[in-house]
Automatic annotation (TrEMBL):
Protein name (database record): Alcohol dehydrogenase
Swiss-Prot/TrEMBL keywords: Metal-binding, Oxidoreductase, Zinc
Domain Enoyl reductase (ER) as annotated: residue spans: 10-343
Transmembrane segments: none
Claim: Disulfide bond is one of the keywords in the record: no
Family matches, as InterPro entries: ADH-like_C (IPR013149), ADH-like_N (IPR013154), ADH_Zn_CS (IPR002328), CAD-like (IPR047109), D-isomer_DH_CS1 (IPR029752), ER (IPR020843), GroES-like_sf (IPR011032), NAD(P)-bd_dom_sf (IPR036291)
Family statement drawn from the similarity comment of this UniProt entry: Belongs to the zinc-containing alcohol dehydrogenase family.
Cofactor annotation: Zn(2+)
């Protein structure tokens, strides 16, 4: 089955229209007509081969929202016409300890990404959501309960939403907890919204005074300008959890010293170069921890979507046509978006 898509043939080539193959739905498959696909910084890194191992042709996209158009004979949880989503995962081994625990993102035998992962389907690796349709195992399809008019802004929840929700949930953000969010971008703006909705006292960290008003509007109770050492020093031993969303190398000591005893600095941004080695003393003398977190499993992603639907949470987006994707990538590099681009997949028809 052929479908229109947008992708790159090489790292130094612009994204362009292409025709790709999708398998016919098997017994446990769901076929989805894609309406919207969010644009993640991972898409840019992969397309431009800034991370090792890009397979071409590369069709990115793992923040997918659409409608079911066909189901396999043994699919029972979905029906034609239903609004659904697909995130970063489309398969895992299903038998390791992590998979048994519903933590497919930590599959010990390697999970299958929505794009750029080996697969039996042509062309030998997965092709993502910058396309008109996709076929996915029913175990990795999610129900979307937001209203139709919000669907474009729901798409980034499938990556940015779950990437921030999972650590907030794991470290029990909520009433009585003080949570910091470092960086006010695609991930950070979702972290602020979700932490606030969970009932935590939410503090945004930004290097820029100009982002103070935006952070407060997103739901932050306070804003700290992180490049001001005197201001940072006022908040030592204060935070239960700090979620660091920044995707560039920086000094972690500035944040570990702000943690309470037994507090955690959780890293979810992947820097282009390793962070400077953190000082050990703040960790030892406060039993503090530096940890990491990766998206979420399917059950937790469904929980996040339901939570966001209940609370009325969506991403702040700029809707674009597929033909504008290279310009969008260039703007992402400059942080010139508030806060996520989303592709209107209807534009592929032209």
């Amino acid at each position: 089955m052929t479908t229109k898509a947008y992708g790159a043939q090489a790292a130094d080539k612009s994204l362009e229209p292409m025709t790709i193959e999708r398998r016919q739905p098997g017994l446990h498959d769901v076929q989805i007509e894609i309406a919207y696909c969010g644009v993640c910084h991972s898409d840019l890194h992969t397309v431009r081969s800034e991370w090792a191992g890009t397979l071409y042709p590369c069709v990115p996209g793992h923040e997918i929202v659409g409608h079911v158009t066909a189901i396999g004979a043994e699919v029972t949880d979905f029906r034609v016409g239903e609004t659904v989503g697909v995130g970063c995962l489309v398969d895992s081994c299903q038998h390791c300890d992590s998979c048994h625990d519903g933590l497919e993102q930590f599959c010990e035998n390697g999970w299958t990404g929505t794009y750029n992962s080996p697969t039996k389907d042509a062309p030998g690796h997965t092709l993502g959501g910058y396309s008109q349709r996709i076929v996915v195992s029913d175990k990795f399809v999610l129900k979307i309960r937001h209203p139709e008019e919000q669907l474009a802004a729901v798409a980034p929840l499938l990556c940015a939403g779950i990437t921030t929700y999972s650590p907030l949930r794991h470290w029990e953000a909520g009433p009585g907890k003080t949570v910091g969010i470092v960086g006010i971008g695609g991930l950070g703006h979702m972290g602020i919204k979700i932490a606030h909705a969970m009932g935590a006292h939410t503090v945004a960290f930004s290097t820029s005074e100009s982002k103070r008003a935006d952070a407060l509007k997103l739901g932050a109770d306070e804003v700290i300008i992180s490049k001001d050492p005197a201001e940072m020093a006022k908040h030592k031993n204060r935070f239960d959890l700090i979620l660091d969303t920044v995707g560039s190398s920086h000094n972690l000591d500035a944040y570990t010293t702000l943690l309470k005893r037994d507090g955690t600095l959780c890293l979810i941004g992947v820097p282009e170069h390793p962070h400077p080695t953190p000082s050990i003393e703040p960790l030892i003398f406060g039993r503090r921890a530096i940890a990491g977190s990766l998206i979420g499993g399917i059950a937790e992603t469904q929980e996040m979507l339901d939570f966001c639907a209940e609370k009325g949470i969506v991403s702040d987006i700029e809707l674009i046509r597929a033909q504008e994707i290279d310009t969008a990538y260039d703007r992402m590099v400059k942080s010139d978006v508030k806060y996520r681009f989303v592709i209107d997949i209807a534009s592929l028809a032209s």
